Amino acid sequence: MKKLVGFVGWRGMVGSVLLDSLQKNNDFVGFHSVFFTTSQFYGIPPQVTNNTSERLEDAYNIECLITLDIIISCQGEKYTTQIYSKLRTIGWKGYWIDASSCLRMHQDSIIVLDPVNLKSIQLGIEKGIKTFVGGNCTVSLMLMALGGLFKSHLIDWISVSTYQSVSGSGSRGMLDLIKQIEYVYKNISPHLPLSKSILSIEKIFTESLNDMYLSKDNLKTPLLGNLIPWIDILMNNGQTKEEWKGSAETNKILNSKKNILIDGTCVRVPVLRCHSQSFTVKLNRDISVREFELLISSHNPWVKVIDNNFDSTVDQLNPLRVSGTLDIPVGRIKKLNIGKKYFSAFSVGDQLLWGAAEPLRRILNILIKSL
Ligand SMILES: NC(=O)c1ccc[n+]([C@@H]2O[C@H](COP(=O)([O-])OP(=O)(O)OC[C@H]3O[C@@H](n4cnc5c(N)ncnc54)[C@H](OP(=O)(O)O)[C@@H]3O)[C@@H](O)[C@H]2O)c1
């Protein structure tokens, strides 16, 4: 008999990419589905194969939730914190699949990224683990990009600077950036074609954004024409939580015997979709650039090594090129002058796909096949 899967948070950034991907891959044929909401109580569920209800169900209705075999939540941390333990406390034995971070470091959960940790996932299912959580977006994208180096136990440490798109902060963050573009355009359009001096144009642009700062409702400062070197809350060692996740989650996913050190600075940039990362990698032995490239490109089918030249880099190593695809281009690979074991690499990945929805879609299918 087909299993019953509940979808919570399917309307948000991650949820809508997940839904789209499940439809494109014809996955809905494999199970029955029910759609939930936390706000649109009289809304209509999306038209998908094997949907069982005519209306959206209340995502806080525990009696309805306990009838499900699998729940996928892309609703966020607040919802998971409120509902997950209630369900477990009353003895719900179903599978919980989550996009948010709050269950990732729990002892009885597995962070899923099957091209990297399929064995741990399979072992976990056999042992009766019931909670599977998608990893932090930059962590998953880094592990996809540099998986071959991790698998060969070559990494001593990684220092990383991230360039994270605004959709990483959810649908509100993305809408906010679009509103900023609209606002600046309104201010600049009376002067088009650009008739004023270049400095006057710059002044209109900057002043528009600074005015808008006063009417902000999401980010603390406008992101357009700007960047914010801070993501998530402050930890007690000066890191942000986003930076802390780099090492903590990577080592959990890899089940590392020796802690691999990863640290850096996470930066929000005015890009709509896709996160980019600039890595400095210290290896534990001297290998050639060619070996480095072969190791990463043979790890999984999505990594594409980009030649270290201007044309290939500009053409293929950027967020617009990668948005909406599962490609993980890795370029700017070179040995650093610092020493023979030091490499730089730059990677881009769609944080809504490999960084969020795709590992969830894949664990759902793995579970459906295993039940
Ligand atoms: N965004 C990413 O790149 C990313 C990557 C990895 C992990 N995550 C994690 O995944 C979880 C969900 O993130 P998200 O980025 O998908 O959050 P989101 O876009 O803010 O969506 C979360 C919920 O907000 C509600 N919502 C309110 N206004 C909305 C609007 N205008 N459009 C769509 N939905 C709206 C929806 O719930 P109702 O339909 O019930 O109202 C939706 O399910 C978070 O825990 C996040 O940390 C996100």
Automatic annotation (TrEMBL):
Gene3D superfamilies: Dihydrodipicolinate Reductase, domain 2, NAD(P)-binding Rossmann-like Domain. One of its GO terms (molecular function) is NAD binding. It comes from Buchnera aphidicola (Cinara pseudotaxifoliae). Its EC number is 1.2.1.11. GO terms for biological process: diaminopimelate biosynthetic process; isoleucine biosynthetic process; lysine biosynthetic process via diaminopimelate; methionine biosynthetic process; threonine biosynthetic process. Pfam families: Semialdhyde_dh, Semialdhyde_dhC. This is Aspartate-semialdehyde dehydrogenase. SUPFAM superfamilies: Glyceraldehyde-3-phosphate dehydrogenase-like, C-terminal domain, NAD(P)-binding Rossmann-fold domains. Pathway: Amino-acid biosynthesis; L-lysine biosynthesis via DAP pathway; (S)-tetrahydrodipicolinate from L-aspartate: step 2/4; Amino-acid biosynthesis; L-methionine biosynthesis via de novo pathway; L-homoserine from L-aspartate: step 2/3; Amino-acid biosynthesis; L-threonine biosynthesis; L-threonine from L-aspartate: step 2/5. PANTHER family: ASPARTATE-SEMIALDEHYDE DEHYDROGENASE (PTHR46278:SF4), DEHYDROGENASE, PUTATIVE-RELATED (PTHR46278). It comes from the Bacteria. The keyword Transport does not apply. Keywords: Amino-acid biosynthesis, Diaminopimelate biosynthesis, Lysine biosynthesis, Methionine biosynthesis, NADP, Oxidoreductase, Threonine biosynthesis.
